[in-house]
Amino acid sequence: MLCSVSKIGRPLRVDQIRKLYPIKSRHYYHGSSAKSLVMSVNGHSSSSIEHTVKRQKLAQDDPLDDVDLSQNNWRSPGPAAFDFRSDVVTSPTASMLTSIAQTTLLDDVFVEDPTTLSLEKRIAELTGHEAALLVMSGTMGNQVSLRTHLLAPPHSVLCDHRAHILSWEAGGVASLCGALVKGVVPKNEHHITLEDVEANAVLSDDVHACPTKVISLENTLGGTVAPLEECRKISQWAKEHGILMHLDGARLWEACAAGAGGLEEYCACFDSVSLCFSKGLGAPIGSMIIGKSSFIKRARWIRKSIGGGTRQAGVVAAPARVALEETFLGGKLAASHENARRIGKLWEFLGGKLALPVETNMVWFNLGEAGIKVKDFVTAAEKLGLRVLGGRLVVHYQIGGEAIEKLDVLMRELLGGKGVDGINGTVDGDPMQTQVTVE
Question: Is the pTM of this model over 0.85?
Answer without folding.
Answer: no
